[in-house]
Amino acid sequence: MAAEDSLPTRPSLLVRVRDAGDHAAWGRFVEVYTPLVYSFCRKRGLQAADAADVAQDVMKAVAASLPRFVYEPQRGRFRDWLFRVTRSKLSNFHHSRQRHPIGTGETGVHALLSEQPDPSPADPGEAENWQQAWRQQTFDWAVGVIRDEFQAGTWKAFWETAVEGRAVKEVGEELGMSVGAVYIARSRVLARLRDAVGQVDDE
Length: 203
Known about the structure:
This protein is mainly α. 67% of the residues lie in helices and 0% in strands. The longest helix is centred in the middle third of the chain and has 23 residues, at 124-146.
């Protein structure tokens, strides 16, 4: 896989998606953030199809707002705005289902829907879960982007020491690498990983 030379460093993605003609930036945006929204909805009790619908609604709302979007980190993070949009669309979904229950013939359907937690207001735990999910999603996405840029030994040296937390010496002996070579390999991958994360993160 070639290095990500088509997308400069942050906050380029959040700036580029304002251009309706930049289809590559929008495609990258959807690729990174849709799984985050989908996962959030699933954890809030939605079925897969419903979570996908809400995620699609969120992306539509974001697309409609992007022409007016100005990236100003000092005024707040993009992730927090996306969190509010997601919760708003999730709230709309619950209210819609309460007004128009699914015709399953089950008398308890409406009661079950009414018991679904309303996303407003956010509690600190929910907000923190979103932050953690954001970090995990950007990390997972970046790993997928850069993985094939490195030889197997280099990647394993990084993964086993930086992610799995194994001792450098132990990993080096296993891979037939010196301690210094393991540190160099880990440093190279970490630098590239930070660069990839920086393309889509807002911190």
